[in-house]
Predict the structure.
Amino acid sequence: MNRDEIKDIVLEYVIGEYLEDENDEITYDTPLISGGIVDSFSMVSLKRFLENKYNISIPDEKASPEAFDNVNKITDLVIEFVGKS
Amino acid sequence: MSNIGNYEERLKNFDWSLSEKELDYKAGNVINIGWYCTDRICQMGKGSKMALLWEGQGGVEKKFTYNDIRLASNTIGTFLRNLGVKNEDRVCLFMDKVPELYLGVLGILKIGAIAQPLFSAFGEESLLVRMENAESTAIITQRKHIAKVRKIVDKMPFLKHIIVVDYDGKHPLREREVAFSLEEATPVENFEFFPTKAESPSLLHYTSGTTGQPKGVKHVHYSLISQYLTAKWILDIQENDIYWCTADPGWVTGTSYGIIGPFSLGVTQCVLDSGFGAEAWYKFVEKNKVTVWYSAPTAIRSLMKAGEEIIKKFNLSSLRHLASVGEPLNAEAVVWSEKVFGKQFHDNYWQTETGSIMISNYPGMKIKPGSMGRPFPGITGTILNPDTFEPINAEGKIGLIAFKPGWPAMMRTYWNNEETYKNKFKNGWYLPGDRATIDRDGYFWFIGRDDDIINTGGHLVSPFEVESALLEHEAVAESAVVSKPDEVNMEVVKAFVTLKPGFTADKDMELTIMNFIRKKLSSLAMPQEIEFVDSLPKTRSGKIMRRILHAKEWGEEIGDISSLEND
């Protein structure tokens, strides 16, 4: 699975699950946590999605608000752990 | 010199009339919080003083002087009146921390209507039960939240107006929806505010109950007397301060000390409308030269987690006084704040029902890290024996926190639920539902809740509400919801679930159920973990024994299990 595919899957999931206004548009760089789209409590479900989807385990210390703040950063995180679990 | 001066001296001969006098209020007079927070400050010659420095997503800024917020609240009040909203009608505010939320509360209060702020992260079910209970006449919201309102609007025949503050004209509005733009509206200079009296209702804040639906806590305009003085003495807000309260006005801290306290004192406050980020927060403090910072333990622990290196990038020397509320502030956080900011966070204790701070660490008073501090002057607080409801006059003994009723900001009732309200009083004491001890110096030390309510990141979540929502999921047969320890949020929601035949307990099912609750109730109520079990511990009469599951999560003794059903 390449980076672009992961990015698109994560973006699609965020749009489907967390975006309240269907007319809003987000990109790979839209701030998710600091932008108020995904709050710290919801971050847990996003982390769980990534772990289930890619069969990885992301340690809590790596799952910081900064690391989850946009789709690009999340993709970096996924790539870091794919194949490690 | 702090506003409170010497705490011990203030205890002597304290009378709330001191606050009334400072506010030029006499018993029987008109008292309207909206007017006190805007017009009065302008009449004091501070109309051109900055009232609100607001920063939104992407660094967008808006600034409002006291004259601006006077005009804005007049304009919102007039708009609502023209729609037909009357005094004592409930007007729900369902918005992020945008200026219209702050100014909307003031506008609603000015027309004598009741402001009902609701946390914008609530899902449609949470929104519906609270609006149904209040029979809200109107809701003020944003485009981004309108989808939730539309999902439930047909169930709310009492709701007459859905006001959208940022309508962009791209998609047609529907029945009952109306656009309002504060920036485009003609400012209303001449406005007759509603002559509310001390006992006129002002705010309706919802809080979770152990059983049953959330309770609407009714406050009145006289609460100002407490909120003004506690903001002055505890938060030590002074004339030239830049004050930042990080709380959302969807919760009581955000109205009592994010709107009423600072504005009635005529000081400058700033608001950051974005999600949490350590760097963004420090940057905000530096940029606005924040002097008084009122935040929450969860946020402080998140800042601790972000590390100390990041702090060195910013000049935070403007900080003068730090305070915290929401859940007990752990001693480590107090020690840490002194180390990194050169200031200790002053923890305080109160709740939605008390309307204002009840127990606190005061400026100038010795802080015992981990303690809630001592009761505010004018507040009689004690610890009661849970069986006799008599005061425990022994240091270190665990009992129920209790207050003698009668302070100005005390709730007046639960909306449409007088019986539950009466049950909050025992032996002439008001019981907030928490346990604590008192030491030899009169400092209170928090122990925990006296019920099953979960305090997650300073927000109360009812296990009952989550369990009820879980049962609405097609796969769930039974559920039990308890708290589990969490490093940042003190505790978080955990659900034990049994599934109906034909459904598989796996990771995907866990995620599906988590998201189901998040959308239905809120992210706060979403279980952070779901454990699938074959059966739940029950009494012989079939009642789920949550305490057994709770004890297991917290590593506590399970206690008496004689009533446990045997399989």
Remarks:
- Residues 3-18 of chain A form the longest helix (16 residues).
- Residues 3-81 of chain A form a domain with the Non-ribosomal Peptide Synthetase Peptidyl Carrier Protein; Chain A fold (CATH 1.10.1200.10).
